[in-house]
């Protein structure tokens, strides 16, 4: 049971009874197909194939080959060289017209026979066979399986294809084709005779939707820029007639073939293939056109369809007030931050950063740089960043820095291409993995600039540590006695996930980084603790293991009350221990409150 | 300083020196314009206007009027009636050709003069003046200001427009126009003579990009489906020639006019207008075409451009193991949940839900319903949901329920159109505002189905409350003495944000809801607490106020140790109080750990 299959089945049964039109019969092999065959495939840009009806029946690819060989010619020769031989304008004439554009003296586009034969002539190769092998290999890469040529159809086409030979010689006479036109037309007959199934065409379309990479085999069939160009030409010239009606009613780049197939592409999302051999007067599959229209309508696939009004790429825009770091601060530091925290703006971005999204960020920041100490862009919810968006954000940040406003990114995935740096780069840009780390950095920046009172000391003694200071005078000696000093070097692991409780650790000097393993197995920094702060309470009180790692960021001195000393205190001096626990409990709730506060951040 | 302005300025100066081409001179008023005028506007779909150069100079709209009157004709008559009069195929002929399509005997499209004059004839109105007023009002709504007609240009056009009169009479003779052709052509001269600025055209284009709503005035100028159709026709027929080249090199629906302007639209994102009167041999503005190409290339605006490969709409896919509710459980309940938690799948979705996104959700869920007790879709990070996506997700959820798998949404914004329901709807779909509420519901469901052992009691006594049970036998009487019972009715506020600390509250019976105010002023439920749980510790230990509200979900009985009793215990029995604090501290850290665990959820 899958609702997508259900929808395909409904579209299939909606049109299966339509037997209007007739199969192509200019060669007996085409006339011999089952006229009632009807298959529909929707293949997603990540490689999942939905199919209903006759999706495994083989038929010759015919004109649906044209965009693929055109892409190969573009890859072999470049856009300019191919553009000098083939125009890209809709012709308004039959696809097999033996004429060129009277002004440019070129085939009007690569989707009519004259243009397609010219594409073939531009395919590189050491020999006739080599050229055909390259064409067949390319198609096979789009389809994700080895495709083969139908000998009967080829021989029949070659025997009767005088009109295409005429086109070949006409192209030779105008020097559009500059090799033996019979060889070129022979290659064209061969490429049109390659057998495919509806499923194959669906995957080929999905490969185009996936920027030229086959989503199943992960093999690249064409460069993204070429795919974009080929899809553009399919938009205006892909259907035998009625490009305007097709764009208005279907709105997908497409190509049809007299074999009875239509291939359509929604870039970035999916490919569609329909096979039904009966053709209308233009040469397009009758049920193919109907099915494409209905799929576009029901699934809302029109490429100009907009689901919603524009939204801002800025998901939240707040200041340091709403995201204080958890670092301990002196009173004058706290006062300064209270007064100046709005001088640091943190913008949380989300979605794909294309031009419009980057524009809304640039506009939101505006000219606020001159009134700010720092701007932080939180990129964690950003998906893709386009080239122009990267340039725009980089330029905006550069502009801020030249106005004296520091800048930082929270960008653990390097979506802007800058790697995490704990120290400032030559241009002053900082990159952090967490908002808390960026907040700490921004707070230091604000304090360095504005705080004139006493700063939080870079070291405390056991007696001036806030935990000891909170203990009543009469209990302090007993508590102090229970601690012993420990030293750790830069980078030393103080506690690892799974370690048993250490006891209560008070930081006297240096900094420790608390980090937690994430599901991908990486270790993600959670916070930084410094002099006057503590750790280890949680496993100590729960008699459990460490969930996080604690590592010395710089040489660290801690005062440790071991588990044994903590336990023995209950007997030795219950009143002193009560005092200690009240202190710890208050600080535990303060931490919990700071978490609640950060969860309440505006969204 | 704004990088978008910088980019526009660069494009402007890149082409400002190009003086090739000549201004239209078929009437003296057009020949009299400043040939060097050059303005570029980019207007976003949310109404911000970037402009550089001569963006305030007035000129007549000329053929750029055609799509707007076509949209009005569609609105007045419907697509079928208009389609019976005007085709939508590129013509390949000059825009002012006095001929119809030889097969359909209709104007080939609404962007050539014959089609545009037919559009005018289809505009409703009680009188000639009323029809023109409707046209002018409509254009004004797109532009967001009252536009006026240039009398000189109108008179000059009317005096010399024999070719358009010829087209009018030809249309009348074929019964395409069925009123006085001179009146119709007069209206056409008037609409072409409406004065606009480059800025006006930019806003008109942005209105189309914004699905027909002027983003500045918020006034609707056209229905979304009509805008989509008009943009489709502009894609294939909007430029005087070279639709194929335009789609390949610019890739934006556009319309040019002999006044020297080009308007282009990127649906959902932005509108572009360029004004530069010198025209190329096709009648398109020379610098207009160059600027549009360059803007499309630099800003990556091509409508077939795909920034990235497809990504899944499923941001996280986890089970109840990773998102346990914070509700207290009996041992047998805990065992059951440990064993069965993987029978509840929670899928966190993100981004816009169009067909492809919904398809990836449907595929991820697959046929897992038969092995599951419940599926929860977390919709909080979803932006827009299209009609087809809503149907697909609804159908998928219905299918799951018919397989015996319960379903729920976390969807506070009703993005799927279902409102929050604390009780089950007739079809069994549940809608919650938080994942925690959905987790609680799913746990009860799993327990009802699988738990055979004793369930968590719906009430506890003070003696069987875990806080009392954790107290050593010898201290229990003292602690018990310090509590008094309090009762609250359903909906009663037990504590409001800002209230002073109450003391320590142990829940004996009933449930309380903890809720926090969010920045928008709404109160958002955070968790539900039941018998055996406690609250009030945080303000009690910090001597602070409540940050959250605590409300009785049903009649509630709590045992309360007031602040006074808590304080007096220090003197009365320090050992007993020490015991109590150890219990509270352990539970505080357990809560903190559960928050850390929930933050570590796979993303």
TrEMBL record, chains A, B:
Biological process according to GO: glutamate biosynthetic process; L-glutamine catabolic process
Residue ranges of domain STAS in the record: 344-416
Keyword Cell division applies: no
Catalytic activity: L-glutamine + H2O = L-glutamate + NH4(+)
Gene Ontology MF terms in the entry: glutaminase activity
Keyword vocabulary terms for this entry: Acetylation, Hydrolase
Residues the record lists as binding substrate: 63, 113, 157, 164, 188, 240, 258
InterPro entries: Beta-lactam/transpept-like, cNMP-bd_dom, cNMP-bd_dom_sf, Glutaminase, RmlC-like_jellyroll, STAS_dom, STAS_dom_sf
HAMAP family xrefs: Glutaminase (MF_00313)
Subunit structure: Homotetramer.
Similarity remark: Belongs to the glutaminase family.
Annotated protein name in UniProt: Glutaminase
């Amino acid at each position: 049971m899958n609702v997508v299959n259900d929808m395909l089945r409904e579209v299939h049964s909606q049109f299966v009874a339509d037997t209007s039109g007739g199969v192509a019969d200019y060669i007996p092999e085409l006339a011999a197909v089952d006229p009632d065959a009807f298959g529909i495939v929707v293949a997603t840009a990540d490689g999942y194939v939905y199919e209903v009806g006759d999706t495994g029946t083989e038929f010759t690819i015919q004109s649906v080959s044209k965009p693929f060989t055109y892409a190969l010619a573009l890859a072999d020769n470049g856009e300019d060289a191919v553009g000098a031989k083939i125009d890209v304008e809709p012709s308004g004439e039959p696809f097999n017209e033996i004429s060129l554009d009277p002004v440019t003296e070129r085939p009007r586009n690569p989707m009519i026979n004259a243009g397609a034969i010219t594409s073939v002539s531009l395919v590189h190769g050491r020999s006739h066979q080599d050229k055909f092998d390259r064409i067949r290999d390319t198609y096979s890469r789009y389809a994700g399986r080895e495709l083969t040529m139908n000998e009967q159809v080829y021989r029949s086409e070659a025997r009767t294809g005088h009109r295409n030979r005429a086109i070949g010689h006409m192209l030779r006479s105008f020097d559009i084709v500059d090799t033996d036109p019979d060889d070129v037309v022979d290659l064209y007959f061969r490429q049109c005779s390659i057998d495919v199934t509806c499923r194959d065409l669906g995957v080929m379309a999905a490969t185009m939707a996936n920027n030229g990479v086959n989503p199943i085999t992960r093999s690249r069939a064409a460069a993204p820029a070429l795919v974009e160009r080929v899809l553009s030409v399919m938009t205006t010239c892909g259907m035998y007639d009625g490009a305007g009606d097709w764009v208005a009613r279907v709105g997908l780049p497409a190509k049809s073939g007299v074999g009875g197939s239509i291939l359509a592409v929604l870039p970035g999302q999916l490919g569609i293939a329909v096979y039904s051999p009966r053709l209308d007067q233009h040469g397009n599959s009758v049920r193919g056109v109907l099915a494409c229209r209905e799929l576009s309508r029901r699934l809302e696939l029109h490429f100009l369809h907009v689901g919603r009004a524009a939204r801002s790429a800025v998901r939240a825009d707040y200041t340091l007030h709403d995201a204080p770091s958890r670092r301990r601060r002196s009173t004058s530091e706290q006062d300064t931050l209270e007064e100046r925290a709005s001088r640091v703006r943190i913008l949380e971005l989300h979605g794909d950063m294309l031009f419009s999204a980057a524009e809304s960020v640039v506009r939101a920041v505006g000219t606020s740089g001159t009134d700010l100490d720092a701007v932080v862009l939180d990129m964690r919810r950003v998906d893709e960043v386009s080239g122009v968006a990267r340039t725009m954000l980089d330029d905006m940040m550069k502009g801020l820095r030249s106005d004296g406003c520091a800048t930082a990114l929270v960008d653990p995935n390097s979506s802007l291409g800058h790697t995490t740096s704990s120290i400032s780069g030559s241009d002053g840009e900082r990159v952090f993995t967490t908002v808390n780390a960026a907040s700490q950095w921004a707070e230091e920046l604000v304090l360095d600039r504005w705080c004139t009172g006493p700063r939080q000391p870079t070291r405390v003694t056991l007696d001036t540590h806030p935990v000891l200071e909170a203990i009543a005078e009469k209990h302090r000696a007993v508590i102090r006695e229970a601690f012993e000093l420990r030293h750790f070097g830069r980078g030393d692991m103080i506690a690892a996930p799974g370690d048993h409780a250490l006891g209560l650790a008070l930081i006297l000097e240096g900094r420790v980084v608390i980090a937690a393993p994430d599901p991908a197995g990486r270790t993600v920094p959670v916070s930084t603790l410094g002099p006057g702060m503590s750790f280890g309470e949680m496993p100590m009180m729960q008699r459990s293991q460490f969930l996080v790692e604690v590592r010395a960021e710089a040489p660290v001195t801690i005062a440790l009350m071991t588990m044994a000393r903590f336990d023995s205190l209950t007997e030795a001096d219950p009143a002193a221990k009560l005092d200690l626990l009240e202190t710890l409990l208050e600080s535990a709730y303060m931490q919990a409150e700071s978490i609640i506060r950060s969860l309440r951040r505006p969204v």
